From TrEMBL:
Acetyl-CoA binds at V88, G89, V90, R96, R97, G98, L99, L100, R101, T124, E125. Pfam families: Acetyltransf_17, Acetyltransf_9, SCP2_2. Residues 189-296 form the Eis-like acetyltransferase domain. The lineage of its organism: Bacteria, Bacillati, Actinomycetota, Actinomycetes, Pseudonocardiales. This is GNAT family N-acetyltransferase.
Amino acid sequence: MTPSTITPQVRVLDAGELRASHTLFGHSLHAGPVDDERWSRTTALYEPGRTLGVDGDGGVLAGTAMSFGSRLTVPGGGSVPMAAVTRVGVRADHTRRGLLRALMTAQLRDTAERGEVAATLRATEARIYGRFGYGVASRGRDLTVQPGATFRPDAPTTGGRVRMVTVDEATTLLPALAAGLRSRSARPGAIERTPGWWELSLHRPAADAARGLAVHTGPDGDDGFATWTVTHQGPGFAANELRVGDLHAASPAAEADLWRFLTGVDLVSTVSAPLRPLDDPLDLLLTDPRACSTSSLSDETWLRLVDVPAALAARSWGDAAPVRIGVRDALLPANDGVHVAGDKGATDPAGPAELECDVSGLAMAYLGDRRPSELVASGWWTAHDPAAVARADTLFATTVSPWSGTFF
Ligand SMILES: CC(C)(COP(=O)(O)OP(=O)(O)OC[C@H]1O[C@@H](n2cnc3c(N)ncnc32)[C@H](O)[C@@H]1OP(=O)(O)O)[C@@H](O)C(=O)NCCC(=O)NCCS
């Protein structure tokens, strides 16, 4: 039997194998192993029983994938339990033999058994995960803004102040502040940040030392925060880039105050902010809107709806009559069939599908990123009843762009 004809056996890795799994993942991204200090910060991300592995030739660990438990905010402000999928890698000498397929299949079943309604991930490459039912459900734009850009006189401000904080202070302050902002903003796509995520995120290796952490205080107390790194390109200070990591605030005015602060830091030639929400208002705040440009637009959240009925029941809907959607799901057959989007009581759920799509296509509309009419026009969805398309557009629409704002 050649290696490609053997069905890979997926197993749950035990605690003693997690570091080897992490090293395998790092190698798959062409990174070296982490040192003891970094590993001690990383372990909290690995929850017991959630790291999968596949052994390859000679019993060597050859492929791995893990997830940690989180929650996903859905349109309307509710949230569902979610698996945050990460640390996916296959040894270069074992690729294209079906190891990832075996890992993804086992992980989806495990996620369903845990009662998690969705799984999300960030993809290194866009051609990998669609076949497993994941679809792009939020996108971000990479912003560049000129340092010293002036703000319009009537751009909002709280009149508050920004103070820089240490890592220790941030460890105390930011998790609770971020959780409060997440529930207050109710932006679809936001996810719960776990203690393990914070541990890893706040304690960066020494190479990232030129990092800043700041909290904004408005009239009612702390109401926003920002994190950034400054990279030195070339000699002197002429080409320093300030790269924004986090920028979250309770109000447009607090957000504008944080932007004023970040664009006012000295000895910086470029301020960049990758993967900001599509509706980020920065250009609207500036005297010269061209001082802010979008260098690229890319996928952020890859969403897998694991329990379609529960996901549809959890989100709110726009004001239109419900539609019946036929969903195809090759990996989780419990999702296969006709589902109602909208108020269930207002339609005959046993009727024929008016629209049809793969579960990955449903994910693309679920958080409000893509309109069903776009998805029909581009062949992702099929319209059996053309009159249902406009209703679906109204039902799925959200008032703000979906965005997670959390990399994992
Ligand atoms: C991406 C990766 C995990 C795929 O692992 P793998 O074991 O080779 O994948 P499989 O053999 O199970 O392939 C499953 C399917 O995905 C396709 N596929 C896998 N990797 C792909 C890629 N990078 N680009 C396009 N298609 C890919 C395969 O062709 C196969 O297609 P099929 O369903 O039509 O047969 C592996 O190449 C890897 O470790 N890459 C570097 C690290 C990385 O990018 N990890 C992902 C982090 S989000």
